[in-house]
Design a protein that fits this description.
With 239 residues, this protein is of the alpha+beta class. The chain is 46% helix and 18% strand. It contains ten helices and eight strands. It has helices at residues 7-20, 33-45, 62-67, 72-79, 117-130, 165-171, 177-188, 191-203, 205-217, 222-230, and strands at 50-56, 84-87, 90-91, 103-108, 111-115, 140-147, 156-164, 236-238. The longest helix has 14 residues, at 7-20. 33% of the residues are buried.
Length: 239
């Protein structure tokens, strides 16, 4: 869990981590110069990817209070270096006097974390202006497949999906947001994500576009995998 006071914080954090992220190199022992040069060319084209989770969760809603607030500290420690989880409008280290509507909503590692509606709205507007996503007004999770960006003011998003957490909970697609994010964290910490990105980069097209959605659907019971996949459902959809 990382401070997400504004869109700029998210961009800076993601791009900083991507710069330090090693790429998956390919090596063969005892190869001839031609093969060696070919492998160098392949390695130079391998993209860096990172999975980023963005929570848009208003602590004034009953859903957020029950499903998310109590788990923020746990998610902060559980996610570690595996995945960046940002909770928009929340933070511990705020610009002095910038947001007069700050309220303490939880504590992480003994430090009070505050929330601001003004900050939350700023983050919503920034994402709406830079993606095809439009905020539903409900509690949502964005999952982004991001790569290094040459534009320091924006994220380089390869693919993205939005999960309407309230609709999914109502459908009984998961038992809790905590359990859903546990699956996301476990996936991000495995080699499966890296292998899947590499494969989709090679194949391109619809496979790459569908990768995130299919991955999220794989965490759900089979009946929801089928129903949510049939169309761009309100619960889980590409953006």
């Amino acid at each position: 869990m990382i401070d997400a006071i504004c869109y700029k914080d998210i961009v800076e954090s993601v791009n900083k981590d991507l710069k330090s992220l090693p790429i998956k190199m390919k090596f063969f022992d005892s190869v001839d110069p031609v093969t060696s040069n070919a492998m160098q060319e392949i390695n130079s084209k391998i993209k860096k990817h990172t999975l980023v989770a963005i929570l848009f969760c208003n602590p004034n809603t009953d859903f957020c209070k029950k499903e998310i607030l109590a788990s923020l500290s746990y998610l902060h420690h559980r996610s570690k270096e595996h995945i960046n989880i940002f909770c928009c409008g929340y933070g511990a280290y705020w610009p002095e006097h910038k947001y007069p509507d700050l309220n303490v909503v939880t504590s992480i590692s003994g430090t009070d974390w505050c929330y601001s509606d003004n900050s939350f709205v700023e983050a919503i507007e920034a994402f709406e202006n830079t993606t095809k996503w439009k905020y539903s007004g409900e509690n949502e999770l964005l999952l982004l497949d991001a790569s290094p960006s040459s534009d320091v003011s924006n994220l380089n998003i390869n693919n993205a999906i939005v999960c309407n957490l309230e609709r999914m909970k109502s459908d009984k697609a998961f038992s809790s947001v905590r359990s859903l994010l546990e699956d996301v964290i476990r996936y991000a910490s495995s080699t499966s994500a890296t292998d899947a990105w590499e494969f989709s980069d090679k194949k391109g097209g619809e496979l790459a576009v569908d990768l995130l959605k299919n991955t999220m659907l794989s965490f759900l019971p089979k009946q929801f995998q089928t129903s949510y996949k049939k169309a761009e459902s309100y619960a889980v959809k590409k953006i």
